[in-house]
Each structure stands twice: as structure tokens, then as C-alpha cells.
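Exercise 7. Given the encoded structure of a 370-residue chain, write a plausible sequence.
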């Protein structure tokens, strides 16, 4: 018996089904029947270049459609890979092949093919997720286009009703009056620049307990890579997370005697960014960018702005009779106002987070406001 895989698409899902049949001459016939299923041109060469550009609604919709075509092509290639791997499994298990292959050789080949099949099936699941995401994006773009068309029609109708006498004027002038401002959509453009005043604040970047003498913590601040570590005096410092020599990320290296060492050529930097050691070369004056860094109340703070740092840091010390239950670092793709609202709502924790940090918490007492 042999198993072959077919693709079935239905709205936002891709299904993979096995079709079983007898081995023999029918395999060649079935492969010829399925040839049209896999002989699909790679759409990437025709996809419009959209990186860093602003498109209107119709152009953005076209990009989404090409995204769907690519996901479809990718899924077909994944299925073809599974079919070819399965044919290799059938070939290994063929009675004629077993006559001149040892059991050990067959086990090894089957194990390798099983790993390849597992990887191929994993890729199919990834393709399913990509198709679902692309279809959602396409539906969103179509909704935007429809809204824009309705807006254009309503604007045109209002213009016609407000000034019927001008319809006999110059046609080009009427068209210009009826057109609403073009909306643009940032498909994949660069991050917009931050307001300079936003950088002139102290920002907490790490817990003191996580920053040991021989450890370092990398982080991004205003789209710039930085790394904090402790110097010889035990105080934290923050330098640019890029070696001045060959731009290697310093957090891939190590901390030795209060200096961070690059894993590429061993250059070592102090907490103020000064390069104090250059193995295999003559020591020259090299210094990385650094940020003012301070430690207070269990947190490590940095000042990314250009103004002189404020003399006083915000206090994160809990009020009297409050207890710290957990110190957690999470990166969440969420608007900051929503996150603050969630963190201030302590009443939901004993009911929602019972299996994590709020396990065993009691329900907050009702406090009368006077």
C-alpha cells in the first residue's frame, strides 16, 4: 500500500489528506494526474516591492493578494516534499530492497526519512498558519477598500447635491473637487522617530538580582541595542551592545574582571565604554557609547536622553505593609495604557492567575473611601 498527499483549501484553512492505494503502475499515472497541482510558478518575482513604502488601499490590497499566492505556492512545495519522502520510505521497505540491505542500514535510512517527514509536516503546519494570517490580512484590506469606496461615493453625492450648477463647468475641475484626500497605509515602513524629550527620563531596564558580577543583560532602548553589566567596583554600567572592532554583539561574550569581553577578538570594555584591552594588536584610543546608569531600590536604571540626567530617580519602593510577591520581566505586543490598566487591577489576579504568580492569593478586602 502507498500513501499520497493531496491539498484541499477551504477559506482560511489548508487540509492535508492521505490517499491510500496499491503499489505498481498506478503510481506513475497518479503522479501525472497531480502534476498540475504542483506546477505553479513562484510568485515572489512578481510581488510588488513594498518595504519602506506607503501604499494606498488598493495597492495594499494587491500586496495582500500576492501574499496569499505565495503562501499557496509554499504549501504546494511542502506537500510535494512529503510525497517524495514517502516514496523513499516505500522504496526502503520494498521486499526486493530488503534482500540486499542489512537491517541496520534499513533502520538508519528509515530513521533519517522519519526525521525528514516530521520536518516536512511541521513546515505544512507553518504554512497553514501563514495562510490563515494572510487571509485575515486580505479581509482587512478589502474592508478598508470598501470603506474608502463608500466614502468616495458619499462625498461625490454630497458635492453633486450642494452645487448642481457647477456640473456644467470644466469636467477636470469637478473631478478634482470630488476627490477626497488619499489615505496611505504604512505597510512595512521604518519606525517613526521618537520625540527627543521622551528620552530624557530614567528608565528601569533590569532587576538588581538578575545582574550578577559575571553576567550581563542585553536590551533595546529606542531602537538601539545596549547591554548592562557590573564593573570592578560592583556598580552597573551600560554600553552600546556592538563591538567597535567588527560590530559583534558584546552580550555573546563574557564579563571578566569588571570588563565585558567581545567573543570575536577579545576586546574588553569598561562600564564607561573605554576599550582597555586589545589582544593581538596595539592598544589605541577606542570608546563605545555609554549611558548614565544607576542602581536604586532593586532596579538598574539608564538615562538615554541628551539632557543632563535628573538628580532624583523615581521610587519603586512599595508602600508600608505591602509585600513584593514576584519580579517578572515580560515583552508584550500591547498598548502601554491597556497594560497599565491591567496591572492596576489587582482584584482579578486571585481568579485569573491562580496557576502562576497569584497562586494562593486572597481576594482584596473592600476598603471604605473617606
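Solution.
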Amino acid at each position: 500500500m502507498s500513501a499520497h498527499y493531496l491539498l484541499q483549501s477551504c477559506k482560511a484553512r489548508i487540509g492535508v489528506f492521505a490517499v491510500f492505494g496499491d503499489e505498481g503502475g498506478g503510481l506513475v499515472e497518479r503522479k501525472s494526474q497531480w502534476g498540475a497541482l504542483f506546477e505553479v510558478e513562484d510568485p515572489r518575482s512578481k510581488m510588488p516591492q513594498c518595504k519602506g513604502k506607503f501604499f494606498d488601499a488598493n495597492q495594499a490590497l494587491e500586496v495582500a493578494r500576492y501574499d496569499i499566492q505565495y503562501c499557496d505556492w509554499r504549501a504546494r512545495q511542502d506537500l510535494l516534499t512529503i510525497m517524495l519522502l514517502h516514496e523513499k520510505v516505500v522504496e526502503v521497505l520494498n521486499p526486493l530492497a530488503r534482500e540486499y540491505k542489512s537491517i541496520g542500514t534499513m533502520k538508519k535510512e528509515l530513521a533519517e526519512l522519519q526525521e525528514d517527514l516530521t520536518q516536512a509536516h511541521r513546515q505544512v503546519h507553518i504554512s497553514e498558519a501563514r495562510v490563515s494570517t494572510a487571509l485575515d490580512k486580505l479581509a482587512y484590506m478589502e474592508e478598508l477598500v470598501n470603506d474608502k469606496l463608500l466614502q468616495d461615493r458619499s462625498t461625490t453625492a454630497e458635492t453633486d447635491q450642494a452645487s448642481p450648477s457647477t456640473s456644467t463647468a470644466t469636467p477636470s475641475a469637478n473631478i478634482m473637487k470630488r476627490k477626497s484626500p488619499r489615505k496611505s497605509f504604512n505597510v512595512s515602513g521604518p519606525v517613526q522617530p521618537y520625540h527627543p524629550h521622551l528620552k530624557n527620563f530614567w528608565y528601569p531596564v533590569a532587576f538588581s538580582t538578575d545582574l550578577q558580577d559575571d553576567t550581563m543583560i542585553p536590551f533595546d532602548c529606542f531602537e538601539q541595542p545596549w547591554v548592562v553589566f557590573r564593573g570592578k567596583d560592583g556598580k552597573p554600567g551600560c554600553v552600546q551592545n556592538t563591538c567597535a572592532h567588527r560590530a559583534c554583539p558584546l552580550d555573546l561574550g563574557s564579563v571578566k574582571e569588571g570588563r565585558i569581553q567581545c567573543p570575536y577578538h577579545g576586546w574588553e570594555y569598561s562600564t564607561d565604554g573605554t576599550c582597555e584591552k586589545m589582544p593581538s594588536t596595539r592598544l589605541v584610543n577606542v570608546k563605545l557609547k555609554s549611558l548614565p546608569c544607576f542602581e536604586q531600590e532593586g532596579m538598574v536604571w539608564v538615562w538615554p536622553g541628551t539632557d543632563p540626567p535628573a538628580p532624583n530617580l523615581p521610587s519603586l519602593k512599595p508602600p508600608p505593609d505591602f509585600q513584593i510577591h514576584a519580579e517578572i520581566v515580560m515583552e508584550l505586543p500591547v498598548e502601554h495604557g491597556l497594560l497599565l490598566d491591567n496591572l492596576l487591577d489587582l482584584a482579578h489576579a486571585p481568579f485569573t492567575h491562580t496557576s502562576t504568580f497569584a497562586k494562593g492569593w486572597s481576594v482584596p478586602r473592600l476598603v471604605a473611601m473617606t
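Remark. Residues 1-30, 164-189 have pLDDT under 50 and may be disordered. Students should compare their own answers with the one above.
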